[in-house]
Amino acid sequence: MSLSNAAVRDIETVLHPYTNLDTFRKSGPTIIERGEGIYVWDSEGNKYIEGMAGLWCTSLGYSEKELIEAAHQQFQQLPFSHVFSGKSHEQASSVAEKLKAISPHPTSKVLFCGSGSEANDQQVKLVWYYNNALGRPKKKKFISRLRGYHGVTVASASLTGLPANHTDFDLPIAGVRHTDCPHYYRYAHEGETEDEFTTRLADNLEKMIIEEDPDTVAAFIAEPIMGAGGVVIPPEGYFQKIQKVLKKYDIYFIADEVICGFGRTGNMFGSETFGIKPDSISVAKALSSAYMPIGAVTIGEDMYQAMLDESRKIGTFGHGFTYTAHPVAAAVAAKTLEIYEKRNIIGHVRAIAPKFESRVARLADHPLVGHARAKGLIGAVELIADKGSKRAFDPKAAVGPTTQKLGEKNGVILRAAGGDIIAFCPPLIITEEQIDDMFDRVERTLDQAEAWVTKENLRKS
Ligand SMILES: Cc1ncc(COP(=O)(O)O)c(C=O)c1O
User: Fold this and answer.
1) CATH fold of the domain at 66-342
2) Alpha carbon nearest to ligand 1 atom 8, residue
3) 164 CA to centre of ligand 1 in angstroms
4) With contact defined as beta carbons under 8 Å apart, do 281 and 104 qualify?
5) Ligand 1 atom nearest residue 228's Cα
6) Does domain 31-63+344-455 have CATH number 3.90.1150.10?
7) How distant, in Å, are the alpha carbons of 98, 122, 157, 319 from that of 166?
8) Phi/psi at 416 (5° precision)
9) Ligand 1 residue neighbourhood (C-beta within 6 Å)
């Protein structure tokens, strides 16, 4: 296959995340040129349904005029200003006020940053800072979960529970432990009920805390639905049992709402969908419909009071990015939150989620699919070699990545998350007709993938 000049230019200049850097030199990039609504077009003129809303993020689609106008206005008025050492701008308080009003826990202040990774990095620093302020210098460890995804900076990649984010990066850092992933389909013991499964996971968490010494365990972080780890939807009652354990040992609960936040699961936050009562949340992505890079963490009054004490002691809060509450990003985020409310985006998600969930459920009958799951407008199918034994394909066969590529040939962008799990996460503005169109393409794609698997004899064990 000969590569275009644009592809060669890209290969020789851009280092691509989450890409096999070697095979990429031959395959080259798909260059996306423009977007409108739920659709994007590549440089060859091919049109795709963006079935992943980019990276689980473009909630309002690709051509939202009000967001473009909000950015344009802010660029004209004040393209940059910072919030260090007593300076501020109106956009910072505007978006903070809106976030406080919808936060799923009593929120005192909002600390902005540029991404989900930075948000979780801030969480680690703030928990350490808080426990020092409270005179608990030993209480510093974090527990996250296998297959959880929390980002790629040194601390947030340590929280992430996926091997590719650790191997040869010398991660995780000390003081981070990973407990079980609540994926019943994959990890339940033979004959174990969902209730028994979640009890076992909560017991294991408690054992881990005791083994580490509860006085040293500071915080637990979890996505309400795991995204990059394969769209893992926890069984009913899981978070209730986990929270009981955390409460018993005075462990701070951070809900990573970077994917689930802002309507994805049918409520403003995934915490509401799963009965989670967090002490803090991390947000990014749909905070600005991904039109500008911005993230944030919410801070309760206790933590704020402790931070005030630290300022009295040290003289300053020694943290912040040049781009903390960047005014253009903040203006776009404030407008995004306004649109969610005035267009009742959550009402729309609730109205169309049954269609989405039923189209995902229908895929369970496909010979390639071991498990199909969905909640709100996020879902996945798990591709397996054998339905009865749930045997996975050899990862080298690349069944998931190949299915993802076949999807693109059928005009739908999907994502192979966690190997052979195909994820669905379209913009929240998708309509019922577009959901049907998307899943007609997915069904065609799975049929072609099945034909390829059979032809290549990839089911052999
Ligand atoms: C749940 C979750 N947390 C954190 C992150 C990291 O966000 P970012 O890529 O903006 O650093 C992601 C990104 O996919 C995510 O899904």
Assistant:
1) Aspartate Aminotransferase; domain 2 (3.40.640)
2) 116
3) 15
4) yes
5) 16
6) yes
7) 36, 20, 7, 26
8) -85, 100
9) 55, 115-117, 120, 149-151, 223, 227-228, 256, 258-259, 284
Specify the DSSP class assigned to residue 225.
S
How far is it, in rounded angstroms, from Cα 50 to Cα 430? 10
Asked if the bond preceding 395 is cis, omega within 30° of 0, the reply is no
Separation of alpha carbons 223 and 267, rounded Å: 15
CA 26 to chain centre: 30
Token output for 403: 């299915």
From residue 348, give the alpha-carbon distance in Å to each of 60, 341, 377, 428: 12, 11, 11, 8
pLDDT digits (tens, 9 = 90+) for 341-388: 999 999 999 999 999 999 999 999 999 999 999 999 999 999 999 999
Q: For the whole model, what pTM was predicted?
A: 0.98
* CA–CA distance, 198 with 386 (Å, rounded to integer): 26
Domain boundaries, the chain: 31-63+344-455, 66-342
Whether 221 shows a pLDDT value over 90: the answer reads: yes
Rounded CA gap, 378 and 225, in Å?
9
133-177 pLDDT, tens per residue? Answer: 999 999 999 999 999 999 999 999 999 999 999 999 999 999 999
User: What's the Cα-to-Cα distance from 370 to each of 112, 148, 241, 350, 379, rounded to whole Å?
Assistant: 40, 21, 27, 26, 14
